[in-house]
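Request from the bench team (R.T.):
"We need a structural guess for the complex before ordering more zinc ion. Sequence and SMILES attached. Just send the tokens back."

Command: build protein-zinc ion structure.
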Amino acid sequence: MNNDTSLGLRIDVDTLRGTRHGVPALLDLLSRYGIRASFFFSVGPDNMGRNLWRLLRPSFLKKMIRSSAASLYGWDILFMGTFFPGPLIGKRCPDIIHRASGLGHDIGLHAWDHYTWQNHILGMPEADVALAIQRGFDELTRITGRTPSCSAAPGWIADGTVLRMKDRFPFTYNSDCRGTRVFMPEVSGKQLRTPQVPVTLPTYDEIIGRDGVTRQSYNARVLALVKPGALNVLTIHAEVEGIVCLDLFEDFIQQALGQGIRFIPLSECVSMDSPPRPARIALDTLPGRSGKLAVQVPDAEGVS
Ligand SMILES: [Zn+2]
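Reply to R.T.: structure attached below.
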């Protein structure tokens, strides 16, 4: 490891609106600064409006108010798929996804159906998990003309079954959990072959409005968490940093570059710690996020 400070940039695309409006804006922005990143696309039905039903849960309602979800995502996203079947994102926006692929970014699978993955993937039979991945994999392959090189679980919702089913696909890396270093996942004592690139930094909606973090102080707060010489991975959302927070994100890029931070796609993070040591994942809670998500389990000596 050296003192080079690099920041892996993971861009999650959850919805039709994010694909249609957020992705082109981000592609233009990244091109202006000569930055390559990892894009993870959702290509099946946009049913994200069904998340409205989660409003019934008080903790989710509190989070929606804190992060002004309606202004972040737009009312059309919040209602999408609630009163009518969700539109197929890959069928509506193939050109945009294809364009991202042609610009040299890592192109990965986020989900076939983001809503269903986030809410129902845990506990699904193996065959259904494999089918959910296969449908997205096939659609993304059809759109870009090449197999996706990586994948990233929506909402970091993943367990041993998810990791084992993903290992059957020709992904060169996956990003399914939060953690601190690149590792080879171990499931039921067996080491898988696809390295994990965990996300190390919090997302916008996790820290905005908490502990006094405002739009004005947000960028400095995140940059203070970037560690020289270590794995740094940030997730942004096409729906947030690509639309309502686009100016804020451009300011983030400028500040980061000014501090000598180099943006890289997650494929370049894999070689930083080679060969990656094994580690396990577990489901746990995280500040600012409702429900459990996959986290990297620290080694026996506490080093993660
Ligand atoms: Zn997502």
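Two things stood out. The first helix runs from residue 16 to 32. The longest strand covers residues 6-13.
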